[in-house]
Amino acid sequence: MSTLILHATFFGQIVIATFQFWRLVNGVAMPHNLSSGFWMSNSFMSWVFKSLHFQGFPKNLALRNMVLLYKYNSSNIVSHEIGVPSPPPSPFSFPSYIHSLFLFTLPLLHNSSALRSILLFLFFFFYFMAPALEAQVPQDQESLPQSNNFLNSLNDATHRSKVTVIGSGNWGSVAAKLIASNTLRLRFFHDEVRMWVYEETLPSGEKLTDVINRTNENVKYLPGIKLGQNVVADPDLENAVRDSNMLVFVTPHQFVEGICKRLVGKIREDAEAISLVKGMEVKMEGPCMISTLISQQLGINCSVLMGANIANEIAVEKFSEATVGYRNNREVAERWVQLFYTPYFIVTAAQDVEGVELCGTLKNVVAIAAGFVDGLEMGNNTKAAIMRLGLREMKAFSKMLFPSVKDSTFFESCGVADLITTCLGGRNRKVSEAYARNGGKRSFDELEAEMLQGQKLQGVSTASEVYEVLSHRGWLELFPLFSTVHEICSGLLPPSAIVEYSEKLPRSF
Ligand SMILES: NC(=O)C1=CN([C@@H]2O[C@H](COP(=O)(O)OP(=O)(O)OC[C@H]3O[C@@H](n4cnc5c(N)ncnc54)[C@H](O)[C@@H]3O)[C@@H](O)[C@H]2O)C=CC1
Ligand SMILES: O=C(CO)COP(=O)(O)O
């Protein structure tokens, strides 16, 4: 019996090692679950093998080997779960695999010196070559999180997901570019990415959609950047979503409800949505996040993607991070991560839709405050103080609205990182700086039209929406920064009031 197990073990190890070597040489990324299974079985088989046949072999060493492989394996699983790249090739991965194989099979072959020499040669070859081969595996494929869904759809062209980007402003165009680079590369997405364009006529008399399709550039909202030949601009909303099961919403928040109304009954039943929109609506019943609005109006699940993502920087492929917020289904979150993830755009997932979305929404109000500080030339310390107080109000407001919001979310890209980048380099900051410089005499609408040429601010209307919630719930005194920003934007207070509010600062959070 033990001989049978021995031979089965030996045979199994050869099959696995051959497969591993083949995939490394051919640059084939191994589906993660399969890889885990192989590692586990290898450790187990080695252990059985050792226990049965090498009585003199120190068992605790065998166990240690197993534990190391298991540790490597589990760190890999954890990192895949949250959507971060695999750790770099581990000393316990490929070489130790071959190492254990040869270490424990060589004595078995002691009668055949020729075979032993060949095996020894292979052992050293694998041992020294493996790290180099491992490095050749395309990292962007290997490091992507993979799920069973992914495994199922990998070889099934009929189930390829089709993506439509609803919106084509500054961030909408960059999102389409990111997505288009991935749909070309990953076989489980259709190559083509539809991008719905709110049609307008350019000064040249041409339609924006025609120019985007002719030049592959959004000349109005993202000039100078090629979107990818597989991006197709479409001015017909219904046509743009007809065949798609992955809908990416990325318009200014004030337009989302109108768009959803037009989409009712027009989308696929199996559609999933993600919102990149930073903002909220206030209804009779109370505040309504944009992802909830989309879910309720269209009857579909909606995740969110937020982060420190100034679009023009990502357009030229400067490194940044983002957070996908998802509700229940991790596999859905992984699919969205796969759609956006590139080596320069690192996406992780957090199970906290409201937390992620509120971070992206509320930091725009703080950025307006930071712009006032810049316009009044109050310096860096004051700006840092405003950012800190703003973050504190963001957290308190989010948790009071949704007790499920997690503290950890504020440390993701969607939290403190987005707050910082928007307060340093965003459009909200820029226009509110101009507002303060003009002593509040020129309206935000006028400045927005002049400075942003069609792009939209979200912070001013969000400040007003937040103010409505605060007054309705009797929370105004708890949120002096948020309420002061709105009062300045609506002309009730001068911009200098931004640093006067702190006298009324509550001690409650
Ligand atoms: N631009 C950025 O750096 C980032 C923006 N975001 C968020 O993404 C969302 C979309 O912003 P952007 O793509 O930058 O847009 P944008 O502000 O650059 O452009 C405005 C867009 O709204 C469209 N539009 C105008 N009137 C419309 C109407 N009546 N109905 C529908 N669409 C209309 C315009 O055609 C244009 O595509 C916002 O919530 C923003 O906060 C998030 C991260 C970064
Ligand atoms: O959300 C943003 C960066 O993450 C962009 O902010 P602005 O709209 O202020 O440019």
UniProtKB/TrEMBL annotation:
Ranges annotated as spanning the membrane: none
Reactions mediated catalytically: sn-glycerol 3-phosphate + NAD(+) = dihydroxyacetone phosphate + NADH + H(+)
EC class (word): oxidoreductase
EC annotation from Swiss-Prot or TrEMBL: 1.1.1.8
Residue intervals of the Glycerol-3-phosphate dehydrogenase NAD-dependent C-terminal domain: 352-499
Pfam families, per the entry: NAD_Gly3P_dh_C (PF07479), NAD_Gly3P_dh_N (PF01210)
Annotated GO CC locations: cytosol
Molecular function (Gene Ontology), one example: protein homodimerization activity
BP term (GO), one: glycerol-3-phosphate catabolic process
Entry keyword Oxidoreductase: yes
Keywords: NAD, Oxidoreductase
Residues covered by the Glycerol-3-phosphate dehydrogenase NAD-dependent N-terminal domain: 162-330
NCBIfam families given in the database record: glycerol3P_DH (TIGR03376)
Family from the record: Belongs to the NAD-dependent glycerol-3-phosphate dehydrogenase family.
Protein name (database record): Glycerol-3-phosphate dehydrogenase [NAD(+)]
Organism of origin: Phaseolus coccineus (Scarlet runner bean)
